[in-house]
Design a protein that fits this description.
The chain is an alpha+beta fold. Helices cover 38% and strands 28% of the residues. The protein contains ten helices and eight strands. The chain has helices at 2-13, 20-32, 36-41, 54-58, 79-95, 127-138, 141-151, 192-202, 235-245, 251-258; strands at 65-74, 101-111, 116-124, 154-164, 179-187, 212-220, 225-232, 262-272. The chain has an eight-stranded antiparallel barrel. The radius of gyration is 21 Å and the shape is globular.
């Protein structure tokens, strides 16, 4: 009788799951856990009190790096000119030791939002380095002319300031050719620590093929946003690598426990620009 009730309950709850991943996690978890405490956890999320900001608990202590990510939506007819102009200016700033910043990667979105450029910068020295760069750029005539010219090519733009997760490898230049996937997760407020705890154990399952490039969480801009950056040889390699992760003990648990923390998620497949250190 109890088994019959559980089966009916399981079927009655299926419409609540809006994507196949959540349904898969539900089915696996129900079969493995099967108790009322687990079932209740799907609907009641307990946020435990903490005594420090998640930025201090999750970021790397040995570095003071700050990252900036830019999303530029470009007029379709201007994309080629935009790429050429951006590459020229980025290369100058990247090589100029007077500016404590460097380009980590620069891409065009291939699958996802079209005619979009994505740029990832690193500021060695944190917020003071960012402020120093901004003050110097205000006095840089060539850069101001570049911004004015660039504005004619853009539809919209936005950015975020990010910190890197302590358990992820630091982004480093790599040779290509590769495609890159940026998976962006918007989490429920108050769940960043829990997310970090699960991914600190899960990341080992995604490093064997060197696909893990970097993991970041937002500090300014849209908050409670996580960006995971991956590199693959091609789309087929991506599919095979992601499928192989499910065969590793512990990966399914990581997905099972982190899916309920997500409000929404997005995937971009990106092609590196010619000047990008990440090729």
């Amino acid at each position: 009788m109890a088994a019959t009730r559980c089966l009916k309950l399981q079927k009655s709850q299926l419409p609540l799951y809006k994507n196949s991943l959540q349904l898969l996690v539900f089915q696996r978890g129900f079969a493995e856990k099967g108790d009322k405490n687990w079932f209740r956890s799907l609907f009641v999320h307990k946020v435990e009190a903490r005594k420090d900001a998640h930025s201090n608990l999750l970021s790397k202590k040995e570095t003071s790096n700050l990252y900036k990510i830019q999303f530029h939506n470009v007029k379709p007819e201007c994309l080629e000119a935009y790429n050429s102009l951006s590459a020229e200016v980025q290369t100058r700033l990247h090589c100029d030791k007077d500016y404590p910043c460097e380009v980590i990667g620069s891409w065009n979105t291939w699958y996802g939002e079209q005619d979009q450029a994505v740029h990832l910068w690193r500021y060695s020295g944190g917020y003071p380095a960012l402020t120093e760069c901004l003050n110097k750029l205000k006095q840089n005539k060539e850069y101001l002319e570049f911004r004015q010219e660039r504005s004619k090519m853009l539809i919209s733009r936005r950015n975020q300031l990010l910190l890197e997760f302590s358990f992820w490898n630091e982004p480093a230049p790599r040779s290509g050719p590769n495609i890159y996937e940026m998976r962006s997760y918007r989490l429920k407020p108050g769940t960043m620590i829990e997310w970090g705890n699960h991914w600190a154990r899960a990341i080992k399952h995604r490093q064997e093929n060197r696909e893990a490039v970097g993991g970041f969480f937002s500090q300014i801009g849209d908050l409670y946003v996580v960006h995971h950056l991956w590199a693959y040889k091609d789309l087929q390699s991506r599919d095979e690598t992601r499928s192989a992760a499910w065969q590793k003990d512990g990966w399914d648990s990581a997905v099972y426990y982190t899916v309920p923390l997500i409000r929404s998620m997005e995937s971009r497949i990106m092609i590196p620009a010619k000047n990008s250190p990440l090729q």
